[in-house]
Amino acid sequence: MHASKPLTVALLAGEHSGDLLGSGLMRALREQHGEVEFIGVGGPLMAAEGLTSLVPMEDLAVMGIAEVVGRLPTLLRHRKHIITTLLAKRPAVFIGIDAPDFNLPIAKRLKAQGIPTMHYVSPSVWAWRQGRIKGIKASVDHVLCLLPFEKSFYDQHGLPATFVGHPLADTIPMQWPKAEARAELGLADDFTVALLPGSRSGEIARLGPVFLAAAQEFHQRHPQAKFISPMISTARAEQFRALQRELAPELPLTLIDGNSRSAMAAADALLLTSGTVTLEAMLIKRPMVVAYRFNWLSYQLIKRMFKAKFFSLPNLLADTELVPELVQHEVTPEALANALEKQLAAADDGHLIERFRSLHHRLQRDADAVSAKVALELATR
């Protein structure tokens, strides 16, 4: 259907992963509807699709409970400005992309004023703070779920939800040969371990030193191993390089500018932090070890509230421990090196990679197109 009147769609992404989802959704909306005017908040990818951001997206990207407190005045000022603008503009539909703590209160205000609202990427209510379902129902008309087990949770609670699959499963090829990725990055054909300690300075500060020590431990056991580490920005690369010079100056480590997926595809094994990156690693089909450290306060709170059996996406999807996951005090150099060896052994018989492949198939749904279709149904209801 190609309507003559442009449709106004509001989208609000709070960080890089949301910017990626938002840009794909914007393209699909335009393909399915024709003329669409986009307003809201996004990053460079959404800007390229025609979004003028109401506030800088970087201001919204905060992680962990303690970190948010320091940034509260800015966040509240931005939220107020966004709500005022969107109530004046009255978009046909509001789509909050991830960042539930920021997006849901905005959605709630808009929904109360009769604007249809959606949330793209289910908050992890099934994992912790299950009481939030009431707040989600009050805030949104429909949830777009990236993972199959999320939709069944909403079905039980009577909130309309659609499993749209995961856009990454549509983007990442079923097979990504190591040799191809190595050639692209100009890497030699050595046994390679990729270290991904996170994209935020706090994560690199917490995980960088122990990842480097684990790499050193692994290197002592396997002297032929080389290490690579993709870094999201020059600032993060300098931060990690400074840690390496101090803690592991002899480690054969190559830093790679951006290109985290190619870096993962070029590696024989991965040591990484929790988050979407674990899903990317699974789709790229490399053995991995997942580790996470929170700051102390965040961990005390999360530990008491977390309900799920696992925290890494490959394990949650498989509903079994496919990959080792270590958290907080379990994250030691020796434990990480041991877990890497164990994962490599598990990958040798092909069973692990086969499981990754079947999970990949399950998540391939053409997420952009499905999400756009649901959004347009809601917008034109």
Please describe what this structure looks like.
It is a single chain. The mean pLDDT is 93. The chain has a seven-stranded parallel sheet with strand order 3-2-1-4-5-6-7, sandwiched between helices. A six-stranded parallel sheet has the order 10-9-8-11-12-13, with helices on both faces. The chain has 18 helices and 13 strands. The chain is globular, with a radius of gyration of 21 Å. It is of the alpha/beta class.
Task: Supply Rg.
Answer: 21 Å
Major sheet description: 7 strands, parallel
Total helix count? 18
Number of strands: 13
| Sheet with the most strands: spatial strand order | 3-2-1-4-5-6-7
Structural class, judged by helices and strands? Answer: alpha/beta
The rounded distance between the terminal residues' Cα atoms is 14 Å
Ranges where pLDDT stays below 50 over 5 or more residues in a row are none
Provide mean pLDDT, rounded.
93
**Quick one: overall form?**
globular
Q: In percent, how much strand structure appears in the residues?
A: 15-25%
